[in-house]
Amino acid sequence: MAKAMKGGAVSESAPIYYEEMSKVAGTENDKQSITRIATDDAYNFGDYITLRSRTGHKPQVLTDRGAIISERMAEMMDAKVGDTITVTDSSGTERKVRVDGITEMHIGHFMFMTSGGYKHVFSEQYQSNAYMVRLKNHETSNVESRSAKLIKLDGAKGIVQNTTSKKQVVTIVDLPDQIMEVLILAAELLAVVILYNLTNLNVSERIRELPTIKVLGGLGVLVYRRLKTVDMLSALKLVE
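The structure corresponding to this sequence follows.
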């Protein structure tokens, strides 16, 4: 596994400890999944994951006494910097962790720690069980191709791609725009239909006036079409 993390398509890699934890919280008071990542190289950790506050983009520094949690996780647990939170690890044991910082993240619940913080909180010896990997080619097709090859390696149990999270963000951001486009189109069609019907109603109410127009030299059909044309142009101008 370690050999596959060097050279070739891989730009750089770093060993980490990866674990899925949980917490019963939120508006529905249901079980929420929390991803815990611990590193023994806090200095270079920022090359893979940016830890910064939302306001002012102030860097969040990993310490050996607590953890930095994602903004969504902080909101879910109503936690602030300096608070102590309780989470449940994969063995079902509850652990108390001090919040040393809150980082700007829009999807998922994450907890970041140093190897020293891991030892302090969990009273266990730190040992990496996963790798963070940066590829030379960041295109989605290449990431998926490389992921398919890595998952076949001995000892590989799963792969987490940040491209998946990016797709979720793009989908969430684009969804309101798509809804607005449908609503605008529906409003335009409704305006045209309403004005068209009003034109028919207007002409039918004045059908008796057409003979008078004919006497004055006008053609009824021509007048009728002109009235519809004027109203249709007005409708198009209205929906622009």
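The CA atoms of residues 211 and 217 lie 10 Å apart.
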